[in-house]
Amino acid sequence: MKRLLLLSLIPIFGFGFQSLAQGDLIVSPARLVFDNKKQMQELNLVNIGKDTAVYTISFVQKNMKEDGSFVNIVEPDAGQMFAEPFMRIFPRIIKLAPGKPQVIKLQYVRKSDMADGEYRSHLYFRAEKGDTPLGMSDVKIDSTKLVVQLIPVFGISIPIIIYSGSVNMASTLSDMKISNGQKDLQTLKFTINRTGNKSAYGDLAVEFAPKQGKPYPVGIMNGVGVYTNIDKRNITLNLTNDSGKKLKNGKLKVKYMTSNEKKPVLLAKAELDID
Question: Bridge partners of 200?
Answer without folding.
Answer: 226
